[in-house]
Design goal:
Blueprint lengths: L2 H7 L17 E7 L1 E2 L11 E2 L6 H15 L8 E8 L7 H14 L2 E11 L8 H8 L3 E7 L3 H6 L6 H13 L5 E7 L6 H13 L4 E6 L7 H4 L7 H17 L3 E4 L2 E3 L6 H7 L3 E5 L4 E6 L4 E7 L3 H9 L5 E5 L2 H12 L6 E2 H8 L7 H9 L3 E4 L2 E4 L1 H5 L1 H6 L9
The protein binds S-adenosylmethionine and iron/sulfur cluster.
S-adenosylmethionine binds next to β4, β6 and β7.
Length: about 400
């Protein structure tokens, strides 16, 4: 039977869809800093070349005003983590990050030993800067290395070379920030398997607590999409992925998500909250939020103006900061799956109920279809993508896609 035929049979019963949240969801905070030294040709993040000196003070003021605006939506919940991403947050002075974090702490309760991550580009971290970030309250770094090969780094338009990348990781250790992540990409223009393995070995030798290993994708609206570089073919990419997964396992990094590997106890708590469909505030240009009000059984998504100028103007004028839409119960299970099925551990029935406010019975027919197609595995209360499902994740997720007008 074709996948489509099975999907039609597995359709949901719309009448069973109503939220019944029982407890407040965990809450985290994402802060977006939208500027970089130079735009990388593969990058479709909301990042803009800083052509003039950045008014850091003005931007931090705007972030805190943005947070003030969203405060009524979080109802006294404590923050579990903060992630300052970009863009290139390490462009900001440690004093600015300090002012930001003091402002957040003055407004929101925080759990003890909260994870606070800052993204850093090796081209922007002069000697001593990580120690100052640490004094400001940062306790985790995510360093965008991408590769340690000077030729490859040049081919993907990075502002740094191998030496700066290594130095950044060493500086993190020196600053007492051993809890750091390295972002690496594979499938780079003309990259060979040996080069991908050499990059990974260099990364492991630097002893990061966490490694994010992304396949380079050509995203619409990027320079590389308009001018595609010569990439390795699908078979070469598959070989790289398999070989790199083996090396990472041998070196003590356990894969817990499609692209994320960590030493014991060093999974990224902030990203885990997204993948487990928790709530999050988002402040800064283009930042997104998902917030659930269990007292009125409502969930909503919010977003802020994407262009830094429009964002700053909206804050200055106290006008609408972006947009806002209700998260519909019939979309919540699909959105949960998009996230939770990326995790190697999958999800439990109780997590599904807690985070979507829905019963698993509403999607039982789809889960059964996933089992029959060998895309899903069940182990008691736990559901996860099978190894076949991990390889064909889009097919698996397609089973959960709401059929608009038919649901
Ligand atoms: C928002 S960037 C933050 C890091 C920092 N801005 C830097 O580049 O040094 C997060 C990571 O996403 C990954 N990334 C960005 N564009 C990508 C693409 N087209 N394909 C795969 N990974 C990508 C890169 O590894 C990058 O470090
Ligand atoms: S430095 Fe990072 S965020 Fe900025 S353009 Fe490059 S990949 Fe994107």
């Amino acid at each position: 039977m074709s996948g489509r035929g099975i999907k039609a049979k597995a359709r949901r019963d719309a009448s069973t869809f109503a939220f019944a949240f029982t407890a407040p969801l965990p809450l985290t905070l994402y802060v977006h800093i939208p500027w970089c030294v130079r735009k990388c040709p593969y990058c479709d993040f909301n990042s803009h070349e800083a052509r003039a000196p950045i008014d850091e003070r003005g931007y931090i003021d705007a972030l805190l005003a943005d947070l003030d605006h969203d405060m009524p939506l979080v109802d006294g919940r404590a923050l579990q983590s903060i992630f300052i991403g970009g863009g290139t947050p390490s462009l900001f002075a440690p004093e600015s990050i300090d002012r930001l974090l003091c402002g957040v702490r003055a407004r929101l309760a925080c759990v003890p030993d909260m994870e606070i991550t800052l993204e850093a580009n090796p081209g922007t971290v002069e000697q001593g800067r990580f120690a100052e970030f640490r004094s400001a309250g940062i306790n985790r770094l995510s360093i965008g290395v991408q590769s340690f090969d000077d030729d490859l780094l040049e081919r993907i338009g990075r502002i740094h070379g191998r030496r700066e990348a290594i130095r950044a990781a060493e500086s993190a250790h020196d600053a007492g920030l051993a809890n750091f992540n390295l972002d690496l990409m594979y499938g780079l223009p003309k990259q060979t398997l040996d080069q991908a393995l050499a990059d990974l070995q260099t990364a492991c030798d630097l002893e990061p607590a966490h490694l994010s290993h992304y396949q380079l994708t050509l995203e619409p609206n990027t320079w590389f999409h308009r001018h595609p570089p010569p990439l390795p073919d699908d078979e070469q990419i598959w070989d790289m992925q398999e070989a790199c997964q083996r090396v990472l396992a041998e070196q003590g990094y356990t894969q817990y998500e499609v692209s994320a590997y960590a030493q014991d106890g060093r999974q990224c708590r902030h990203n885990l909250n997204y993948w487990q469909f928790g709530d999050y505030l988002g402040i800064g240009a283009g930042a997104h939020a998902k917030l659930t009000d269990t007292s009125i059984q409502q969930a909503r998504r919010l977003w802020k103006h994407k262009q830094p100028k429009a964002y700053l103007q909206s804050i200055a004028e106290h006008s609408a900061h972006g947009g806002d839409t209700a998260l519909l119960p019939e979309d919540a299970s699909f959105e949960f799956m998009i996230n939770a099925l990326r995790l190697n551990a999958g999800f439990t029935e109780s997590l599904y109920r807690e985070r979507t406010g829905l019963g698993l019975e509403t999607i039982m027919a789809i889960l059964q279809t996933g089992l029959e197609q060998n895309l899903l595995e069940q182990d008691g209360e736990t559901w996860r993508a099978s190894s076949h499902g991990q390889r064909f994740l889009n097919d698996l997720l397609g089973l959960f896609a709401p059929e608009k007008g038919n649901a």
